[in-house]
Design a protein that fits this description.
The protein has 325 residues and is of the alpha/beta class. Helix content is 32%, strand content 19%. The structure holds NADPH dihydro-nicotinamide-adenine-dinucleotide phosphate (NDP) and ligand LQESDW3C.
Length: 325
């Protein structure tokens, strides 16, 4: 198996088929809806909050609300009363089952539910998928996180409508260091490996450091990418604002960090500071323009045309660089 990551792959252009990049369509279908971009902000406390979710839903972007200190039922009711879709996260513990029961009792159905745990290839996830499919069958269920083809096959067979791939490639992840496991350092090739067996959409989660990494993820099989650090440093970001030597930052911490958990137990995340780089809406527009450029370099007009391109793996030291068709 080839091992590579975002920083040592480049995609190869094909003859341009458009007169303007504005002809390139960066939108993507996920479940019953079409979204402007194949990008979703990470469901983390320092990345998004209720008001960012409302902004994203109202402006044609996908979002997944985080699951920490949130009343998912009240959130869903509020979004749907405003005519917006609801997309929530659940864990696999007793309170999460109680939340599902409340949805049923109140006759509410979030359009998207993401089962979000560190080690998603687990019986606990199988049970939660089965419970959701029995109680709220209309919801589109995303499950994860996983990092192997076996896990993707199991989650799909258990009923997941999409899988989320990425164990430890995130900027605030320390899973690799703490456990010796994961896809950190080879996330893009792990994605390729998983995509070979997937029959449903994959969301590639973690490790995106620049906008070009979105196209690389699509090339290797992602329908969408989940992005944390690139979104955490905006004026609207919910993390605390910190000033260091006159420069403004937002805090960004892992969901499995002691900052999120409130205790130091099974910690697999850390806290960093992201420089504030402006408004979220501007970044989303720039991302769309960059994905449109990627599509044009791919010689296409649609997002999935990116899947057709060849690529090179850039070798280090004496390794030859080689082209893969
Ligand atoms: N993508 C990634 O690489 C990672 C993401 N995260 C994020 O951190 C948040 C918290 O996740 P998580 O701690 O799973 O949430 P929870 O503690 O809510 O749920 C995990 C459940 O699975 C059990 N479990 C068994 N093995 C593991 C394992 N290796 N890691 C974690 N749980 C395990 C836990 O029991 P018990 O606690 O008793 O062991 C618990 O019941 C999530 O948002 C998750 O996405 C966390 C780590 C890695
Ligand atoms: N190992 C851990 N992974 C975490 C934790 N909190 C979140 N995450 C994952 O990171 C991505 C975002 O990655 P980024 O590179 O875009 O910043 C997020 O979607 C989760 O899957 C954690 O505490 N530990």
């Amino acid at each position: 198996m080839e091992i590579f990551d975002y920083d040592n792959i480049l995609l190869l252009p094909r003859k341009c088929r458009v007169e303007s990049r504005s002809e390139c369509d960066a939108s993507v279908q996920l479940g019953a809806r079409r979204f402007k971009l194949p990008v979703v902000p990470a469901n983390m406390k320092t990345v998004l909050d209720e008001s960012i979710c409302r902004f994203l839903a109202a402006n044609g972007y996908f979002y997944v609300m985080h699951r920490f200190d949130v009343d998912n039922v009240a959130f869903t009711r509020d979004m749907q009363e405003r005519g917006l879709f609801a997309s929530i996260s659940l864990g696999v513990k007793a309170p999460d089952y109680a939340t599902v029961d409340r949805f049923v009792a109140e006759g509410l159905c979030p359009e998207y539910i993401t089962i979000d745990i560190a080690h998603g290839h687990a019986e606990s996830v199988q049970k939660m998928i089965a419970y959701l499919k029995a109680k709220i069958p209309a919801a589109f269920v995303i499950a994860g996180n996983v990092g192997t083809p076996e896990a993707v096959i199991d989650l799909e067979n258990w009923g997941a409508d999409a899988t989320k791939v990425g164990i430890g490639p995130g900027k605030v992840c320390i899973t690799k260091l703490k456990t010796g496991f994961g896809t950190g350092g080879w996330q893009l090739s792990a994605l390729k490996w998983c995509a070979r067996v997937a029959t449903k959409p994959i969301i590639a989660d973690g490790g995106i450091r620049s906008h070009g990494d979105i196209a690389k993820s699509v090339r290797f099989g992602a329908t969408m990418v989940m992005v944390g650090s690139l979104f955490a440093g905006h004026e609207e970001s919910p993390g605390q604002t910190v000033e260091v030597d006159g420069q403004r930052f937002k805090e960004y911490y892992g969901s499995a960090s002691d900052f999120n958990k409130g205790e130091y137990k099974h910690v697999e995340g850390k806290r960093i500071l992201e420089p504030i780089k402006g408004l979220l809406a501007d970044t989303l527009i720039e991302m769309e323009q960059d994905v449109q450029s990627s599509i044009s370099y791919a010689g296409g007009t649609q997002l999935m045309d990116i899947r057709k391109v060849n690529y090179v793996i850039l070798g280090g030291g004496n390794d030859a660089e080689h082209i893969l068709m």
